[in-house]
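User: I'll paste a sequence; please echo it back and then give the predicted structure.

Assistant: Echoing your sequence first, then the prediction.
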Amino acid sequence: MNDPTLHRVWRLGADIDTDALAPGHAMKHGIDIIAQHCLEAIRPEFARQVQPGDVIVAGPNFGIGSSREQAAAVLVKLGVAAVIAPTYSGLFFRNAFNLGLLLLTCAEAEALNEGDRIALDTAAPAVVSPQGVRLACEPVPGFLMDMVRAGGLMNQLRQRTGAAASQKASHA
């Protein structure tokens, strides 16, 4: 999947934790309210100004902290197309793909700047900078890309079971 769309970069530092993404004080609410507080301690304007298709570029250890899946869910809710970072917390990594959020592991992510307009080449995979420089990313296994395309694991399972039910009905 080569994405010709240009995505605006929101630049964050290292060690962005799940409490920054989905603050504890908002956890008693639904995802719509939690999303309004996403990154408020680091980038107060983020939740109000992020646009569908924007990407987050961060330093190492993105998503460290608790196992709360709302940390990935708020990014999906806000329309973030991908997170690009050198490393991720293992729990956040799993939650993100399960919810359909693309994570690209890119050692050179920090070469990208706030406001850059970048292209994503998920087939390679690579990120293409505004200057046309290709930053290589680690391969994303096909089954994870399938989850992203489906909009998450639950959607993928619904599609599979719906297809299986349709197939059974047509053979009856």
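DSSP finds seven helices and seven strands in the chain. Residues 52 and 73 are 14 Å apart (CA to CA).
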